[in-house]
Amino acid sequence: MDAQLKRGILDICVLSAIKYEDSYGYKIIKDVKPVLDLSESTLYTILKRLEETNMLVVRTTIHEGRVRKYYHITHKGLKKLEDFRDEWKELMEVYSFIMEDKR
């Protein structure tokens, strides 16, 4: 898969994992596991990028004596998900054209 396309899909998967409730790293990995294999190092790179682009914000809490970062999707992150859904419709039309058997 094209690296840019894969990067975009990974970002969308992470944003989707936190769209309804704040979450933390391990839970995000667990939540996306049914659809893709995501390593911790990849996840934290994605989370950092999404934070830097204001698509999510981070809050730190103490959980069972340890520091845990919770990630919250922003309005900009929700807009990114909405835009992706619109773009996906167009992409599926292209996919259908490519996969069509015209024999």
Word description of this protein:
The chain is α+β, with helices and mostly antiparallel strands and 103 residues long. The chain has a single domain (3-99), classed as Orthogonal Bundle (Arc Repressor Mutant, subunit A), CATH 1.10.10. The chain is 59% helix and 16% strand. The protein contains 4 helices and 2 strands; from the N terminus they run αααββα. The longest helix has 25 residues, at 75-99.
Q: Radius of gyration, rounded?
A: 16 Å
Tell me the CATH architecture: Orthogonal Bundle
Average pLDDT, all residues: 91
Order of helices and strands: HHHEEH
- Percent in strands: 15-25%
Number of helices: 4
CATH topology description? Arc Repressor Mutant, subunit A
Number of domains: 1
Main beta-sheet strand count, sense and barrel state: 2 strands, antiparallel
Alpha-carbon distance between the two ends: 27 Å
Overall structural class, as computed from helix and strand content, comes to alpha+beta
Summarize the structure in short:
The chain is elongated and about 65 Å long.
